[in-house]
Amino acid sequence: MALKLANLALLVLFPVAWFAPLMRAGLLPLFGLSEISVISGLASLWKSDIFLALIVALFALVAPYAKTIGLVLIQFGRAPARLRPVLVLAGRLAMADIFLIALYVVLAKGVGVGRIETAWGLYLFTGCVLASLVLSHLDRDEAR
Questions:
Q1: How many CB atoms neighbour CB 37 within 10 A?
Q2: Which domain holds residue 97?
Q3: Residue 80, SS3?
Q4: Buried b / exposed e across 93-124, counting CB within 10 Å, b at 16+?
Q5: What's the pLDDT tens digit per position in 83-100?
Q6: What band does 72 get if pLDDT is binned at 50, 70 and 90?
Q7: Helices (H) and strands (E) in the chain, counts
Q8: CA distance linking residue 25 with residue 120, whole number of Å
Q9: Could you give the 3-state DSSP secondary structure of residue 41?
Q10: Where are the beta strands (DSSP E) in 2-130?
């Protein structure tokens, strides 16, 4: 039951993490903002590169949320267990977003374009993705 409740909590926490500030930045050419969230970053990216914005949205929003919804549906008997391999793939796609954010922070700091400070939303977002990964792993063990 704890796994089910944790996955249900992720359905609420993921959207909170999307709107929470990931970082505070100054003097970045792509973002004219002081606080950057997943949603505000996607909105800025949409203005300059729609294709890249769609790819980032897939990795940062769709994949982790679809994985969580799929796992909840399986746990509550609303979807067949044969859906699990698809959820594994969605989980792999979802981990790519953390890499992209980390790469962005490292590049921006290394280039010296401006000042970047991580914010609480980055930890919440990372925690949601990692919790989703752990819960999927525990669910697979429980299903065996």
A1: 20
A2: 2-143
A3: coil
A4: bbebbbeebeebbeebeeeeeeebeebebbeb
A5: 888 888 888 777 666 666
A6: very high
A7: 6, 3
A8: 14
A9: helix
A10: 23-26, 35-36, 115-118
Structure tokens that stand for 67 in this block: 């994985």
- Report yes or no: 135 and 14 within 8 Å, Cβ to Cβ: no
Report CA-CA distances (Å) from 136 to 10, 68, 98: 12, 9, 17
Q: Are residues 100 and 22 in contact, defined by beta-carbon separation less than 8 angstroms?
A: no
User: Based on C-alpha coordinates, what's the Rg of the chain?
Assistant: 16
What ranges make up the beta strands (E) of the chain? 23-26, 35-36, 115-118
How many domains, in total, are found in the chain?
1
Q: Is the pTM of this model over 0.85?
A: no
- Higher per-residue confidence, 121 vs 29: 121
Q: How many residues does the chain have?
A: 144
For the residues 1-15, what does the mean pLDDT come to?
Answer: 95
